[in-house]
Amino acid sequence: MNPLAELRYFFTALGYFTRVPVPRWVGYEPHYLNAAARYFPFVGVLIGASSALVYLAALRVFPAGVAVLLSMAASLLVTGAFHEDGLADCVDAFGGAYTRDDVLRIMHDSRIGAFGAIALVIALALKWQTLAALPPLRAASLMIAAHAASRACAISYLATLDYVRAEGKAKPVAQRLSGPALLCAVLFGLPWLLWPNGPGAPDWRFAGLTFAVLGALRFAMGRYFVRRIGGYTGDCLGFAQQIFELTIYLVGLAWISS
Length: 258
Prior knowledge:
Helices cover about 70% and strands about 0% of the residues. It is an all-alpha fold. It has one domain (about 35-255). Helix 3 (about 40-60) packs parallel to helix 9.
């Protein structure tokens, strides 16, 4: 393993998924992006940690609902609403088209339709209300876990499904993910679910339930993508990340509410 190459791949992942400036020496080659896929969940850790810090700092001044909104605004600013765009595009396409070609055409359209707008409002509102209802330390911990684990689950489709576009923004990423790269992504993304209440003893029961829910959801969404378009697009990965992230928050709230 070449440490300099791995650092380049990490910075490539950071530059692709966020608006954080990366060093010029990193450069860009298409193959960097596929090699960088293993670091996508680690970028999620950084995004989740920044959101959690904004949330905890805002709690010193504002009520929980306002603090959560500020943390969400921070993550949207850092990522440029990258995955939220995929959510809107997918819901527009899957909700408004019948044939595979029409789904791909609508998904490629940069304009947002009624289905996509409604999905964004519902997703953001659910995140806001769910996180605001959680105890502060649990909310902050789940922000980190959800951003990391959702990205690990989303890119796992690179190992099992086919990319269906001849070209596209995600094309350099969309080579088959190797077993070692997938394992690396899983190790970066999933262990955070063991600590939904912050540092301390791991909560194996919560983690086991969440893993089971995410696994079932991953299988169901993968089957749906294959049935509708024969595989996945970059927008499908963004859609999946948003659904996985929201699911983790909902499971986290249901766990303490039951």
